[in-house]
Design brief:
single chain, 130 residues, mainly alpha, 2 domains, two-stranded antiparallel sheet, 3% strand, binds zinc ion
Length: 130
């Protein structure tokens, strides 16, 4: 009888109980609790797997956060909260910028470029008035 294998894992590997990790390409034995496991238990591979899961979820649910971002009440609350965080963690921010000076410089250059572009378009709200 023809055996149907839905997991996408080659039948010979399914029988041997040995897999090739889809991320690092190393051999591994799947957990007995997750017989269809496709990614090994290396921390780096698991981190990558979680990242891919999140990205694919966001791609499948593009409108999920839209109503939140469109809600002015939520936007005000968020901007107030992040302003408070910046005020109470100014030493941390200064330290981070010192440690990542080049990254911060590039980030600010891009941020200001976008800020000026939005401002020319008349969309930008002045800090504290929105
Ligand atoms: Zn792996």
């Amino acid at each position: 009888m023809l055996e149907i294998n839905y997991s996408g894992i080659p039948q010979e590997n399914l029988n041997k109980n040995v897999r090739i990790c889809e991320i690092c390409s190393n051999e591994f034995a799947p957990s007995k609790y997750r017989p269809n496991q496709k990614i090994c238990s290396n921390l780096a591979c698991q981190t990558e797997r979680q990242k891919r899961n999140i990205l694919s979820w966001r791609a499948r649910n593009p409108a999920y956060f839209r109503h939140i971002h469109a809600n002015p009440h939520w936007r005000n609350k968020r901007s107030l909260r992040s302003r408070q965080w910046r005020l109470t963690h100014s030493a941390h921010i200064r330290q981070y910028r010192e440690a990542h000076r080049e990254y911060y410089r590039l980030y600010m250059r891009e941020y200001m470029r976008q800020y000026r572009r939005r401002r020319r378009g008349g969309e930008v709200a002045v800090e504290g008035t929105s």
